[in-house]
Amino acid sequence: MKSEQWTVDSNQWAVEKNSGLKFFLQTVIARAYPRIIGQQREKSWMFFDIFLPLLAVSAYVFVYRAIGAPEEYVGFVVMGGAMTAFWMNVLWSMSSQLYWEKEMGNLALYIMAPNSMMAILLGMALGGMVATLLRALAITLLGSWIFDIPYAVVSFGQLFLVFMLAMVALYGMGMLFASLFLLLSREAWHLSNLAQEPVYLFSGFYFPIKSFNFWVAMSASIIPLTLGLDAMRQLVFPSGAALGFLSIPVEMGILSGLCVVFLTAAKLLLAYMEKLAIREGRLTESRR
Questions:
Q1: How far apart (Å, rounded) are the C-alpha atoms in residues 42 and 125?
Q2: Between residues 99 and 247, the one the model is more confident about
Q3: DSSP 3-state assignment of 14?
Q4: Residues 6+ apart with CB under 8 A from 141
Q5: Alpha helices in the chain (DSSP H)
Q6: 196-200, 251-255, 284-288: range with highest mean pLDDT
Q7: What does the pLDDT average to over 162-173?
Q8: Rounded (5°) CA angle 251-76-232
Q9: Which residues contact 1 (CB under 8 A, 6 or more apart)?
Q10: Distance CA 50, CA 131 (A)
Q11: Cα–Cα distances in Å, from 215 out to 170, 202, 204, 240, 244?
């Protein structure tokens, strides 16, 4: 995979070729740029992306306070509401992205370009993550201020590491689903809708995952947000460790394994998708 840049030097054409890691990073930056800039063009979207999820968070907070639940549950809800932003970004801005690109006629250009599909999807992920991170921070800060939530961070280093492991695994799963949804064609829309609410439940966005029995919680751990949220809650809230599902080192180890599994599977499936598009010549057609 190489990119050629033509330059004029002493009335002669010279070819400067970019390849390898440099070309990969250039592709990531180029694909992330339009998403970052696009967020600035519709500032009203930022308001609704923060205000509407905050309403859902408020509903759960009032329910927990009405039934006299421990105050930590209020903090769990706010943190879970903030993390929903990342799941929605993965589901709609990554998993379904190649399907939408096919419908708009852009997928053929991605397949023909010398760029790596992993780099293209990674650029989409990083570009969308910037706006998503702002939304998540806004929900966390506003929710903490409105509902007066106390925090007791055990280790900022571990908290950052858990968050990054969860994001790498989550966006790796998004890359995997991008190819899977594309191969399933029109079923992508239905799968996206189907996956939205069950993940809210099994990831424990609004309650401790320990509330499930062990095997249900263990099965739900295939979703990176499940263990990511559980570990972050243990590190952030005073009684988080007592309500945690597994110990933090174990959850970090599982998240590391999920990173490897999802990224490897995404790479293999993307390579298969490209070969299928080249061999059959029909994968990029919107009518299929």
A1: 19
A2: 247
A3: strand
A4: none
A5: 20-41, 43-66, 72-90, 97-104, 107-112, 117-147, 156-183, 187-202, 214-220, 224-236, 248-280
A6: 251-255
A7: 90
A8: 30
A9: 19, 23, 114, 115, 116
A10: 11
A11: 21, 12, 14, 21, 15
- Contacting residues for 66 by C-beta, under 8 A, at least 6 apart: none
Q: What is the DSSP letter of 214?
A: H
96 phi, psi to nearest 5 deg = -95, 0
Count how many Cα atoms sit within 13 Å of the Cα of residue 109 in the half-sphere of its side chain: 6
CA quadruple 70, 74, 79, 85: dihedral sign: positive
Distance CA 191, CA 95 (A): 10
2 strand-pairing partners: 19
For the stretch 92-108, pLDDT in tens is 777 777 777 777 777 77
Mean pLDDT of 97-126: 79
Per the prediction, the chain carries an average pLDDT of: 81
